[in-house]
Backbone:
């Protein structure tokens, strides 16, 4: 059986074709709480983990309780931060040259 490999809760949800809202409704929690579980911000209790496994037709052991890998995205530096780094690196060299 191909489903024996551990997958994150989010991967299992996608594989089984369930929406976040459908999973939340099935176990009696809010969509926001479900998102917390899917993103790994909160770990479910043993009872809740068993509910998820039963809902997905898998065992608790088949779930890797880790967040779905995030895609990296560039975060721009704060205003002026990039300029300070450039100027900060150049200033000591200028001072050293000027004092010779």
Residues:
């Amino acid at each position: 059986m191909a489903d024996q490999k551990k997958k994150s809760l989010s991967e299992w949800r996608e594989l089984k074709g369930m929406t976040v809202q459908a999973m939340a409704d099935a176990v009696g929690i809010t969509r926001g709480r479900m998102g917390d579980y899917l993103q790994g911000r909160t770990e479910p209790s043993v009872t809740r983990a068993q509910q998820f496994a039963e809902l997905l037709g898998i065992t608790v052991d088949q779930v890797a309780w880790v967040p779905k890998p995030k895609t990296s995205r560039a975060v721009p530096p704060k205003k002026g931060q990039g300029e300070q780094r450039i100027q900060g690196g150049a200033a000591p060299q200028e001072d050293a040259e000027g004092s010779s």
Summary: Residues 72 and 95 are 39 Å apart (CA to CA). Residues 2-62 form a domain with the 434 Repressor (Amino-terminal Domain) fold (CATH 1.10.260.40). The first helix runs from residue 9 to 15.
